[in-house]
Amino acid sequence: MNNKHIMRMTPDGQITIPPEIREVLNISPDVELAFEIEGDHLYLKKMQPTDKISTWIDIMRGCAAGNLTTDQIMTLTRSDDNP
Fold this sequence. Notes:
Layout: H1 19-25, E1 33-38, E2 41-46, H2 52-60, H3 70-78
Antiparallel strand pairs: 1-2
């Protein structure tokens, strides 16, 4: 497979990942992708699946002992940024 693919962005800012790339990298609609910027280069990286509950527990571990209010705990648990 050729390592260089040229794609054009739509007016809405969307880019279609060619099927041959999706197949090689096993990318499906539920796979998370991360953008990394280095200078004037933009890299798209396939994220590894994570156990979201374990990740959330690791994030929350120790928070209750940190004198958080109930409102602060509720905000943390309802945040879209948390797994």
